[in-house]
Amino acid sequence: MKRGLLLVAHGARNPAWAAPFERLRERLQLEQPDRAVALAYLELMEPAPAQALQQLAAAGVGRVEVLPMFLGGAGHVQRDLAPLLEAARASLGIEIQVHAALGEQPTMLDAMSQLCLRLLEAGGTP
Length: 126
Known about the structure:
By secondary structure, this protein is an alpha/beta fold.
């Protein structure tokens, strides 16, 4: 079964806001050329998660790993993203595995802690 990754970010009115997320998606796609990597936004930008999931399914992806690109997972992830993913699961017939929000991942917490400590030690230069 072909597997894919869907990164879901909030979205913003300013298109420049999305640049780091787009760079991440491009990097991941380069590192995993046999996998489908997509980026979607909950608000204000496109594609929406449903559109991105349709594109992944059309590309033959049968299982999608979803990583919410949020520091916390309580608000938008549970309230807005979860129902969208349930609807896509039912309509597209693909497996969708939702992971904890980026900021709740132990590896990310370690990286953020290390950055903060380096800032303190280096006097503002990481």
